[in-house]
From TrEMBL:
Membrane-topology descriptor: Multi-pass membrane protein
Primary site of residence: membrane
Keywords recorded for this protein, A-Z: ATP-binding, Cell membrane, Membrane, Nucleotide-binding, Transmembrane, Transmembrane helix, Transport
Gene3D superfamilies membership: ABC transporter type 1, transmembrane domain, P-loop containing nucleotide triphosphate hydrolases
SUPFAM superfamilies attached to this UniProt entry: ABC transporter transmembrane region (SSF90123), P-loop containing nucleoside triphosphate hydrolases (SSF52540)
Official protein name in the record: ABC transporter permease
Organism of derivation: Litchfieldella anticariensis (strain DSM 16096 / CECT 5854 / CIP 108499 / LMG 22089 / FP35)
């Protein structure tokens, strides 16, 4: 649970103060909608205007109807007959106006639903395109990741909801102004009373909306934890452990506790908000009915016609309705604002530009060099690599050995430029990594990480992702699968390379851990152009026979390449040209197998320990 220290000071975190804060993102939402479809936005605006102005026009025609009826009745009394057309034309006109209002409302809802689909797609694409430009460090930043997930979840509904509410507010404001125009003819004072009466409830609604906005933002970590618990409790990949360890009740209780805490705050805010809303709203209603009584008195006194009274009656009733619709719009807007603030913070996240242009190094054939490389993960204080120096030439193999958490994978992440340049220098063919054109660099590296991805795609496509130029190339799939020892089991599946893998989709075939690893290994072999092969524990789930075969293949395949291998199995490590023993981010031993054994240090100790285990 978050402490008070996490609570952002309202001024700096959310400059959403005062009445206009509610409109903070309306302009941006409108721009977004405008960019999505100009014609639909324009149509929306026209319909809003029409639906806003016409009710006042209808009220005014109502007055004309009543007055002309009264006049016609008098004429009828005096002359025994009266022309009907002067009255009926107003009735026809009002029917027309009402038809137009209905048309405008239909137009609004039709255009809104079209825009919703277009906008959802547009925002989702924007979010995903941005995701492609983020660095790994940014993905690992929990706040940013949270923004990304929240942005995606409500991409299709929020921006349009905000625009709709802004428009609805506008429409009601137009109605209110046009009612005001009618009312001011009765008395400017009456209008003033109404405005003053309605103001407090608007201000309080805006204030509480702002409070709710801040509350929602501040407690985002708890909401995130709640979502995480939902995922753990209801996803196939975690349900095994949840069941076997009996975690269901524990997690569900935590889930409930978070809800209870959040609900308490919600409840306090809702009660305060609605109590004030009611009391101040009462003030507005009193003002309305005060003015209404005044109109009645004036009519009885003969200062207003019956038609005028009817019109004012309608104006008061509809004015009241427009007012409460505006309040509803305002109070719903804070959530939409919350969403959009999140979306824009995510979209405006600065990204590092990949400015490198080299497609060839200064010393071609020099290989990989690490010079005094140190590294600390962003957002942490403890360095995980210190003063790493190494040189790997084409045709050589390097094995990294070390305890869990010693920094082996981190070293690979630096080599593949997943993190920005650390202290020291990493060079490929004599040029620093950041000088290289990123595409060229990535094409030269074939890597499988421990946590490789199990794509819920066809078996062949799972290999094809290793080289997008050959994504659909069946012959290449097969060649890669043969090198990675995946060919046999893929061919034996019902649809061969076209078999859907994983359990997410219909007829998906789940694989064993070792089979998945063979798929990942074959994926690395897809990258034919790569001359740097990096395998991070590629065989940890494989049986001993498969492992031996894999490495025999690997040696055949890699004679002119640079290969880097991370493994806890010394049987595979011992064949490497160079072995690097890392301990707590430092290189403690460096040499080939025989040299290191002769040194009788940590490597020799670990090697013997494992050898004993196998006896
Ligand atoms: N994304 C990250 N952010 C912060 N710290 C990290 C991150 N990834 C790893 N670390 C820390 O960096 C250290 C080195 O991790 P690394 O994954 O490089 O170890 P490793 O040697 O590959 O371990 P293993 O043998 O278990 O795979 C560990 O202490 C780990 O806690």
């Amino acid at each position: 649970m978050s402490s008070h220290a996490d609570r952002p000071s309202s001024a700096e975190a959310v400059p959403l103060t005062g009445f206009f804060g509610v409109f903070r993102y309306s302009r941006r939402a409108l721009e977004l909608v405008w960019d999505t479809s100009r014609s639909l936005t324009f149509g929306l605006a026209v319909c809003t205007l029409v639906a806003g102005v016409l009710p006042a026009v209808a009220a005014w025609i109502g007055q004309l109807i009543v007055d002309s009826v009264v006049a016609a009745m008098e004429a009828h009394r005096e002359m025994g007959e009266a022309a009907l057309w002067p009255v009926l034309r107003y009735v026809a006109l009002e029917a027309l106006v009402i038809a137009l209002i209905t048309l405008a409302q239909r137009g609004l809802s039709a255009q809104q639903s079209l825009l919703r689909a277009l906008l959802g797609q547009k925002v989702n694409v924007m979010i995903l395109e941005k995701a492609g430009t983020l660095s790994l460090a940014q993905f690992e930043d929990s706040e940013l990741y949270d923004k990304l997930t929240r942005a995606r979840r409500e991409a299709s509904s929020r921006p349009l909801a905000l625009v709709n509410k802004t428009f609805s507010l506008l429409q009601n404001a137009i109605s209110l102004v046009s009612f005001g125009v009618l009312l001011v003819q009765f008395s400017p004072w009456a209008l003033m009373i109404l405005v003053i009466g309605a103001l407090p409830v608007f201000v309080s609604e805006a204030k509480f909306s702002g409070d709710a906005f801040r509350l929602f933002r501040w407690r985002s970590p708890q909401t995130r934890m709640q979502m995480y618990l939902e995922t753990v409790l209801a996803r196939e990949d975690s349900i095994k452990e949840v069941k076997l360890f009996g975690l269901g009740t524990l997690f569900l209780n935590r889930y409930r506790a978070i809800f209870d805490a959040l609900y308490g705050e919600d409840r306090r805010l809702t009660i305060r908000r609605d109590t004030w809303g009611f009391l101040l709203g009462l003030l507005g209603t009193l003002a309305f009915y005060g003015a209404y009584a005044w109109v009645v008195i004036e009519t009885v006194g003969g200062n207003l016609t019956l038609g005028e009274m009817t019109m004012y009656l309608l104006v008061f009733k509809q004015g009241q309705a427009a007012l409460s619709a505006s309040l509803t719009a305002i109070s719903g807007m804070y959530e939409d604002n919350l969403y959009l603030s999140n979306l824009y913070e995510y979209l405006e996240q600065p990204v590092e530009s990949d400015s490198g242009t080299l497609t060839q190094g200064a010393i071609p054939g020099d290989g990989i060099r690490f010079e005094h490389v140190g590294f600390t993960y962003p957002g942490t204080d403890t360095p995980v690599l210190h003063d790493i120096n190494l040189h790997l030439r084409p045709g050589q193999s390097l094995a990294l050995v070390g305890e869990n958490g010693s920094g082996k994978t981190t070293l690979i992440k630096l080599l593949t430029r997943l993190y920005p340049p650390p202290t020291g220098r990493i060079l490929l063919d004599g040029s620093e990594l950041h000088e290289w054109d990123i595409q060229t660099l990535r094409r030269r590296i074939g890597v499988i990480f421990q946590d490789f991805v199990r794509y819920q795609l066809q078996a062949g496509e799972n290999l094809g992702v290793g080289d997008i130029d050959a994504f659909e190339d069946e012959a290449r799939w097969q060649a890669a699968a043969r090198s990675g020892l995946a060919d046999d089991f893929i061919s034996s599946m019902s649809n061969g390379y076209r078999t859907q893998l994983g359990r997410w989709f219909k007829n998906g075939q789940e694989l064993s851990g070792g089979q998945w690893q063979k798929i990942a290994l074959s994926r690395a072999y897809m990258r034919e152009g790569a001359d740097i092969l990096v395998l991070d524990e590629p065989t940890s789930s494989m049986d001993a026979a498969a492992e031996a075969k894999i490495f025999a293949r690997f040696r055949e395949h890699s004679h002119d390449k640079m290969t880097i291998l991370i493994s806890h199995r010394f049987s595979t490590v011992r064949a490497a040209d160079q072995i690097l023993v890392i301990d707590q981010g430092r290189i403690v031993e460096y040499g080939d197998h025989d040299t290191l054994l002769a040194e009788n240090g940590r490597y020799a100790h670990l090697f013997r320990l494992q050898a004993q285990g196998y006896q």
